[in-house]
Structures are given as C-alpha cells and as structure tokens.
User: Which sequence fits this backbone?
C-alpha cells in the first residue's frame, strides 16, 4: 500500500465516523468481498441492492434483486445492469462466467494477469465452447497452434487469475439493516475535522454557511440545529441520504463590484472573493495610460504579469490583453487591438519591461506566456518565477492550478472562467467577445492572485536552489 494512502486511513475513518456512515471492515478481506457479502445477505432478506461501481468484476455478484449502478460519466449515461444486461454486455451465458472471463483476459486495473496473448474476443469464444477455465484446461488437446501453447503455458496464471477475480460472499461482517440506515451527521465533530484538515469548499458544501474553518471546531457547536441531511438547502434524496452532489450554487454578479480601496497585506483569510475584497484594478486603454504604466513597471524589481489569449496553445494564440501587478490587491489591465499588426506594435511598446534583466517576472505557468511573447518576437528576460513550479516542489502530489492554490492558501475564490465565456459547447463565447470591464476584472485578478501566491509560496520553498537552478530554467 502506498504510504500516502496508509497515512490517510486514520483520517478517513474519523471523517466517516463523524458523518455517521457505518464502517465495516475485516482483516484479510477486500472492500469488494465485504460489498459482495452484504449484497447477497441484503438480497436474501428482500432488499433491492444497487452496487455503485464501474468495476467489471462486480458482474459476478448480479442476481435477482442485486444490480450494478454505473453513475453517468463524461458523456456516458447512467446504467443499471441486471443479469440480462451483464450477460449481453460480455456475451456470456451466466454471470458467474465474468470470473472466468477475467481469469482468461486479465484486468490491469485489479492487477489480474490473465493468460498472455488472450484478449476479450478470444476469451469469450473459449467460454462459449468450454464454459469455464477448469473445463478449458482439461481439454487443451482440442486446441491448436499458438492458442494451445499460450493456454498450456499460462495454466497456473489462469487458475491464480480466476482466484483473484473471485469476490468472496462470506466475509465476517454483520448485516443489520437498522444499523446500516442513514443517520444525521455529527456536525460539530465533522466541522472540527474539516477545519483541522483545511477543507474549505467541502466544508461549506456539506455543513453550509455556518462552517468557518477559522473558528474553533469550525464555528459549529452542539447547539447547531441546521438540517443535517440537506446542507446548503440542497434537496435530500428519498432515501434520506444527503444529496451532496446536486447542491445548487447561487451566484452573484461578480462584476458589479466597485473597485475601491487598497489592502496592502497578504493576510490569509477564508471565504474571500472579488465581491468582498477591496481592490484597485485599473484599465490602461490609451497612449497616456500605456506610457504611465510602462514607467511604473520599469521602476519595479519584481512584477507579476499574465496574458489573456484566444487559444490554450501558445503558438496558435492571439493576445487579447495583458495584466500586471506588483503590489497586493492592485493591478493593471491592458486590452490589445484585434489587428495583429497593431497588437504587435502595442506589445513592443512594453518590450523594455519584458527584456529588462533587472526586473524579475512572476507567472502561473509562465512558460505559456514566454512562448506567446516569443511568437510576437519578444524574448522574455530576467529572473523568472512560476507559482505552479514552486507549489510542485512544496506539495508535488496536490493540484497546481491557480484557482485551487488561491482557495487553499489565500482563502480566496477567483472569478470563474465560465462566468466570463460560459460553459464548453457551441454557445461558449471567445475572450474577444467579453465586455472590457469584465475581462479587465478577471485578468487583473489573475495577476494579483498570482503575485500573492508567490509571496506566500516562495518563502516556503525548502530548496530554493533546486527551484532556481533546475525547475525555472
């Protein structure tokens, strides 16, 4: 077992217990075995059982009143599989043959080797003829050529694979329907755990707005009377389980905020956004403002900058605008002309800043901006800092995108790109179609947040030399 998983298990147990979810475990048995055992016992007592899984091996457990429930995934719809559907899906006669099928062809997701050279089509053909692995292995003389050689050479692997694929139905766990029913969560205990683990978004989703990770025990006491099964006013399912994955998120007009005030510190709080954080974002959209901004940039020693473009591929993208920040909660946005020649001319006005060896530049995935500028014949010079790389060195196993970093380390939720251009699809608009005031707020915030992330992350690098000598170059 990977050490990261092993060290997480005690926390998982505490969270499960605080959520009042029954915890069933047995030494020497896998979760599959416990689920298989419970599914059989529950069906025997008259329950309709739905096993929520994408795993192929669960097909062997399907029987009257026991079904596989495959949730919708990407563009695939939800599926409910009974015995008929499982047999049709794998082209087998009985659900028990799922075990033989996996024993022959293997399953890399479950480390089941199978027989070398046997794929799904061949395995199905062999089961149609011989019915089971055991019957196949005692009748290999009916086969010929490479197929016979592979099966005879893989005899032991097939037997072992079938054993590995078989889910136990007699795990030593009790089945008591009353003890397995949904119970109200222990809100104070869960809030305290979430606060300790700094689970901000998840805490709000499950516990509602009363949850505050800055307060002792997450700000929730034993006197809290919030409905335990419908956090955030989401609608509980008919089973009484909290419908945690269909919570309606009620948004606000992110772009109606008046840009006033100047908070100079980078103090970390929780629940902040453009709506409730004083900031001064300015638009430079004329020659006078351009020259004033350039003069200010050349007076700095460290500046964060970001580009807004038409494409995620830097070499095919056209620049829509760029933003700059060198002081927390302040930023400038420069909209670019749609004509490439005019855009190139304006970009080259700022070339003295981009090529200045004495000004360090900060970016989030600054490699993208470097390639974009190179495509406009500007070579980025000076010391380069990348918040994505810095965080990779500090927490290599976590996500590194800017929104995640902002919420995790600054307690700040940035403006969503979907608020700007809509969701993916034919109705999604391009960055060029976004009104100036909205894209300026979005882009300036990106530069501001990236600057503040650098101020937070850089001092926490334990090996600045590795970052500066290896990662950044």
Assistant:
């Amino acid at each position: 077992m990977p050490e990261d998983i092993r060290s997480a298990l005690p926390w998982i147990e505490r969270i499960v217990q605080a959520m009042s979810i029954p915890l069933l475990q047995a030494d020497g048995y896998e979760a599959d075995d416990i689920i298989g055992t419970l599914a059989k016992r529950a069906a025997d007592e008259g329950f309709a059982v739905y096993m929520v899984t994408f795993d192929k091996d669960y097909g062997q457990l399907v029987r009257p009143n026991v079904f596989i429930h495959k949730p919708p995934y990407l563009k695939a719809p939800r599926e409910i599989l009974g015995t008929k559907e499982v047999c049709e899906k794998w082209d087998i006669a009985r659900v028990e043959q799922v075990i033989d099928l996996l024993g022959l062809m293997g399953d890399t997701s479950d480390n089941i080797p199978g027989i070398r050279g046997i794929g799904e089509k061949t395995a199905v053909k062999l089961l149609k003829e011989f019915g089971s692995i055991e019957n196949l292995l005692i009748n290999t003389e009916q086969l010929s050529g490479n197929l016979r050689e592979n099966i005879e050479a893989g005899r032991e692997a097939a037997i072992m694979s079938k054993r590995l694929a078989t889910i136990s139905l007699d795990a030593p766990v009790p089945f008591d329907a009353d003890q397995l029913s949904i119970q109200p969560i222990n809100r104070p205990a869960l809030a305290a755990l979430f606060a300790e683990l700094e689970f901000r978004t998840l805490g709000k989703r499950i516990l509602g707005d009363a949850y505050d990770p800055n307060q002792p025990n997450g700000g929730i006491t034993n006197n809290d009377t919030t409905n335990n099964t419908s956090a955030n006013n989401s609608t509980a399912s008919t089973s009484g389980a909290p419908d945690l994955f269909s919570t309606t998120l009620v948004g606000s007009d992110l772009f109606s905020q008046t840009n006033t005030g100047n908070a100079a510190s980078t103090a970390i709080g929780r629940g902040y956004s453009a709506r409730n954080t004083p900031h001064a974002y300015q638009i430079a959209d004329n020659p006078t403002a351009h020259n004033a901004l350039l003069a200010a940039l050349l007076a700095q020693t460290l500046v964060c900058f970001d580009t807004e473009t038409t494409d995620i591929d830097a070499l095919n993208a056209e620049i829509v605008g760029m933003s700059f920040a060198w002081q927390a909660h302040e930023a400038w946005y420069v909209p670019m002309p749609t004509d490439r020649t005019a855009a190139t001319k304006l970009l080259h006005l700022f070339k003295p800043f981009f090529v200045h060896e004495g000004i360090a530049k900060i970016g989030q995935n600054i490699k993208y901006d470097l390639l974009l500028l190179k495509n406009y014949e500007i070579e980025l010079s000076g010391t380069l800092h990348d918040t994505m790389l810095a965080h990779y060195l500090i927490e290599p196993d976590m996500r590194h995108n800017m929104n995640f970093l902002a919420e995790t380390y600054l307690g700040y939720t940035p403006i969503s790109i979907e608020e700007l251009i809509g969701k993916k699809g034919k109705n999604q608009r391009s960055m060029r179609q976004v009104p100036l005031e909205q894209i300026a707020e979005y882009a300036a915030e990106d530069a501001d947040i990236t600057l503040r992330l650098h101020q937070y992350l850089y001092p926490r690098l334990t090996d600045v030399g590795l970052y500066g000598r290896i990662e950044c170059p």
